[in-house]
Design a protein that fits this description.
Layout: H1 3-10, H2 23-51, H3 55-82, H4 84-90
Helix pairs in contact: 2-3, 3-4
């Protein structure tokens, strides 16, 4: 087994299967998978923050949560450029009134 493959085995799996995705849609799917991963991390950090009474840990987790939220926003901004339908939803053009 080569070194690159060993490293890949240590990483989390991408939450969606990208093998069947066309090259035309690959960037959008990469961004969506990245957003999912960031939300998973956000949920984990919020749960851990709720579990601790240590203010130093809470402070660090709040900082990390803030960073993860920035990442979500960055991925969404790029996705909005690539997916007009997604952009319209984020801009409040939804069916819910």
């Amino acid at each position: 087994m080569n070194k690159g493959k060993k490293i890949l085995e240590l990483l989390s799996k991408i939450p969606i299967d990208l093998e069947g995705v066309s090259q035309e849609n690959m960037d959008q799917q990469i961004l969506r998978a990245s957003i999912i991963a960031e939300y998973d991390a956000l949920n984990l950090y919020h749960q851990m923050m709720d579990m601790t009474n240590d203010e130093e840990i809470v402070e660090v987790l709040r900082h990390v949560i803030d960073e993860e939220e920035d990442h979500v926003a960055l991925f969404q901004e790029i996705l909005k450029k690539l997916d007009a339908n997604f952009a319209s939803k984020l801009n409040g053009e939804s069916e819910i009134e």
